[in-house]
From TrEMBL:
Species lineage: Bacteria, Bacillati, Actinomycetota, Actinomycetes, Streptosporangiales
GO molecular function terms listed in the Swiss-Prot or TrEMBL record: hydrolase activity
Protein name in the entry: NUDIX hydrolase
UniProt cross-references to InterPro entries, sorted A to Z: NUDIX_hydrolase-like_dom_sf, NUDIX_hydrolase_dom, NUDT19
Record-linked PROSITE patterns: NUDIX
Organism of origin: Nonomuraea purpurea
Residues of the Nudix hydrolase domain: 26-230
Entry keywords, A to Z: Hydrolase, Magnesium, Manganese, Metal-binding
Essential cofactor(s): Mg(2+); Mn(2+)
């Protein structure tokens, strides 16, 4: 049990929380999607580098994702694939929350990359999301003047829940000032769609093999948070996207915790 050493400010906060002097902030429900494509040497993942000015995970390379919007629970959202109840069973979540998590996964992916996991019917997927009209809708979703249900209805689309694969469940450690209760999904980039750098919270986007990303992180050239590092470590074991999608997954909740080891506060996952 070695873990990650904590900076002084977080170490002090960890001691206060462990002693019961400070209460941890509640974790907000969120969804993250690992976008995959087949590269010449195996699976590649889509990563965004968060701007250095961001209050949470500044400068970190992350997958598209974000917090649940209250309107993500709207039952009017056109839906194809496993039901919210089935997703709830997978993620140990009640049905209303499960619906919101899947909707947030689709919505946030479109907001942050321009990739849309939806189609005109349960068997098709949108092949092109470029153009002024799509961009206007994306911006309206971001500023919350448009909800996912209205966006899909306006374009005659259904959400393709079957294009998402459940991958993991991470909760931000109690020592953090901003906390998220995040379900991780995996999905393949739909044929014809092109992710793009749409600005906002990120200042750089890349497609990269998991092993290459991990190597850069170990060299200190990029910053990865523990959930991203662990997810990439798992993905690096697969030779192709098909193998990733076929891999059995047991969703176990992981919340790293701060412990004192030989006088030093460290963050551990075990």
């Amino acid at each position: 049990m070695t873990g990650f050493p904590l900076p002084a400010e977080l170490a002090a906060r960890a001691r206060d929380i462990n002693a019961g002097l400070v209460a941890p902030v509640p974790a907000r429900d969120a969804a993250t999607v690992v976008l995959l494509r087949e590269g010449p040497r195996g699976p590649e993942v889509y990563l965004l580098r968060r701007k250095s000015t961001m209050a949470f995970a500044a400068g970190a390379y992350v997958f598209p994702g974000g917090s649940v919007d209250p309107r993500d629970t709207d039952q009017a959202t056109a839906w194809a694939g496993p039901s919210p109840a089935e997703w709830g069973a997978v993620f140990a979540a009640e049905e209303r929350l499960a619906r919101a998590l899947v909707c947030a996964a689709v919505r946030e992916t479109f907001e942050e990359s321009g990739v849309l996991l939806a189609g005109a019917d349960p068997r098709s997927v949108v092949s092109d999301t470029t153009g002024d009209g799509w961009e206007a809708d994306r911006l309206a979703l971001i500023d919350r003047s448009l909800a996912l249900a209205g966006f899909l209805a306006g374009r005659g689309l259904v959400l393709r829940a079957d294009l998402l694969k459940p991958w993991a469940h991470w909760i931000t450690p109690e020592i953090e000032h901003r906390r998220f209760d995040t379900r991780f999904f995996a999905a393949v980039l739909p044929e014809g769609q092109r992710p793009r750098d749409v600005g906002g919270e990120a200042d750089q986007v890349v497609w990269q093999r998991p092993a290459e990303t991990l190597d850069l992180a170990r060299k200190g050239e990029i910053f990865l948070m523990p959930p991203t590092f662990q997810t990439l470590t798992e993905l690096a074991a697969y030779d192709g996207v098909r193998e990733v999608l076929a891999a059995p997954r047991e969703i176990v909740t992981i919340m790293p915790r701060a412990v004192e080891i030989e006088g030093e506060m460290r963050l551990v996952t075990a």
